[in-house]
Here is the input.
Amino acid sequence: MSFKAVELEEHWLDGNRFHLKYHRLSTKLEIRVDDELVHSCHLYFRPLYKACFKVEDIEYQLSITWFLIWRSKLKKNDKVEIGELFPRRRRKSVVMLGYLTTVACLKVLLL
Here is the structure.
Protein backbone atom coordinates (compact mmCIF):
# COMPACT_ATOMS: atom_id res chain seq x y z
CA MET A 1 0.00 0.00 0.00
CA SER A 2 1.75 3.14 -1.20
CA PHE A 3 1.13 6.72 -0.21
CA LYS A 4 -1.18 8.56 -2.56
CA ALA A 5 -1.64 12.28 -2.09
CA VAL A 6 -4.85 12.37 -4.13
CA GLU A 7 -7.76 10.03 -3.48
CA LEU A 8 -10.33 9.59 -6.24
CA GLU A 9 -13.77 7.98 -5.99
CA GLU A 10 -16.73 7.75 -8.30
CA HIS A 11 -20.39 7.19 -7.42
CA TRP A 12 -23.57 7.01 -9.48
CA LEU A 13 -26.65 8.73 -8.06
CA ASP A 14 -29.91 9.74 -9.79
CA GLY A 15 -28.39 9.06 -13.20
CA ASN A 16 -25.45 11.39 -12.53
CA ARG A 17 -21.83 10.42 -12.06
CA PHE A 18 -20.26 12.03 -8.99
CA HIS A 19 -16.45 12.37 -9.22
CA LEU A 20 -14.91 12.97 -5.80
CA LYS A 21 -11.32 14.11 -5.36
CA TYR A 22 -9.61 14.61 -2.01
CA HIS A 23 -6.05 15.91 -1.78
CA ARG A 24 -4.61 14.67 1.52
CA LEU A 25 -1.82 17.24 1.81
CA SER A 26 -3.81 20.38 1.05
CA THR A 27 -7.11 18.91 2.44
CA LYS A 28 -8.95 20.10 -0.65
CA LEU A 29 -12.17 18.31 -1.55
CA GLU A 30 -13.74 18.65 -5.00
CA ILE A 31 -17.06 17.26 -6.15
CA ARG A 32 -17.78 17.15 -9.85
CA VAL A 33 -20.98 15.96 -11.46
CA ASP A 34 -20.59 14.95 -15.09
CA ASP A 35 -17.36 17.01 -15.38
CA GLU A 36 -18.94 20.15 -13.88
CA LEU A 37 -17.52 21.42 -10.57
CA VAL A 38 -20.41 21.72 -8.09
CA HIS A 39 -18.52 21.99 -4.79
CA SER A 40 -14.95 22.70 -3.71
CA CYS A 41 -13.58 23.35 -0.22
CA HIS A 42 -10.56 23.03 2.04
CA LEU A 43 -11.16 21.08 5.26
CA TYR A 44 -7.99 22.32 7.03
CA PHE A 45 -8.32 21.58 10.77
CA ARG A 46 -12.13 21.47 10.95
CA PRO A 47 -13.09 18.00 12.21
CA LEU A 48 -16.75 18.61 11.31
CA TYR A 49 -17.79 19.94 7.92
CA LYS A 50 -21.27 20.34 6.47
CA ALA A 51 -22.28 21.90 3.18
CA CYS A 52 -25.17 21.97 0.73
CA PHE A 53 -25.11 22.10 -3.05
CA LYS A 54 -27.60 21.66 -5.88
CA VAL A 55 -27.46 19.40 -8.91
CA GLU A 56 -30.31 19.68 -11.42
CA ASP A 57 -32.55 21.41 -8.82
CA ILE A 58 -31.97 18.63 -6.28
CA GLU A 59 -30.35 19.74 -3.05
CA TYR A 60 -27.68 17.49 -1.51
CA GLN A 61 -26.14 17.77 1.95
CA LEU A 62 -22.49 16.81 2.40
CA SER A 63 -21.32 15.79 5.86
CA ILE A 64 -17.69 15.01 6.75
CA THR A 65 -16.35 14.05 10.18
CA TRP A 66 -12.71 13.18 10.68
CA PHE A 67 -11.96 13.63 14.37
CA LEU A 68 -10.88 10.03 15.14
CA ILE A 69 -12.39 8.05 12.29
CA TRP A 70 -13.07 9.41 8.82
CA ARG A 71 -16.76 9.53 7.94
CA SER A 72 -18.27 11.18 4.87
CA LYS A 73 -21.80 10.88 3.57
CA LEU A 74 -24.10 12.47 1.05
CA LYS A 75 -27.77 13.06 1.84
CA LYS A 76 -30.77 14.03 -0.21
CA ASN A 77 -33.92 15.20 1.59
CA ASP A 78 -32.43 14.07 4.95
CA LYS A 79 -32.08 10.53 3.61
CA VAL A 80 -28.59 9.06 3.28
CA GLU A 81 -27.95 8.35 -0.39
CA ILE A 82 -24.24 7.46 -0.23
CA GLY A 83 -23.16 6.09 3.14
CA GLU A 84 -19.42 6.53 2.63
CA LEU A 85 -17.91 8.70 -0.08
CA PHE A 86 -14.32 7.48 0.46
CA PRO A 87 -14.49 3.86 1.73
CA ARG A 88 -10.72 3.25 1.44
CA ARG A 89 -10.00 6.34 3.52
CA ARG A 90 -12.45 5.20 6.20
CA ARG A 91 -10.94 1.70 6.25
CA LYS A 92 -7.44 3.15 6.67
CA SER A 93 -8.56 5.39 9.54
CA VAL A 94 -10.24 2.46 11.35
CA VAL A 95 -7.13 0.28 10.93
CA MET A 96 -4.86 3.10 12.13
CA LEU A 97 -7.03 3.76 15.19
CA GLY A 98 -7.04 0.05 16.03
CA TYR A 99 -3.27 -0.15 15.65
CA LEU A 100 -2.67 2.90 17.84
CA THR A 101 -5.06 1.58 20.50
CA THR A 102 -3.32 -1.81 20.51
CA VAL A 103 0.14 -0.25 20.83
CA ALA A 104 -1.04 2.06 23.62
CA CYS A 105 -2.58 -0.87 25.54
CA LEU A 106 0.59 -2.92 25.16
CA LYS A 107 2.71 -0.03 26.44
CA VAL A 108 0.47 0.36 29.50
CA LEU A 109 0.48 -3.39 30.21
CA LEU A 110 4.25 -3.75 29.83
CA LEU A 111 5.19 -0.77 31.99
Observations:
- The radius of gyration is 16 Å.
- The first strand starts at residue 6 and ends at 13.
- The chain has a mean pLDDT of 94.
- The domain at 6-110 is CATH 2.40.128.180 (Lipocalin).
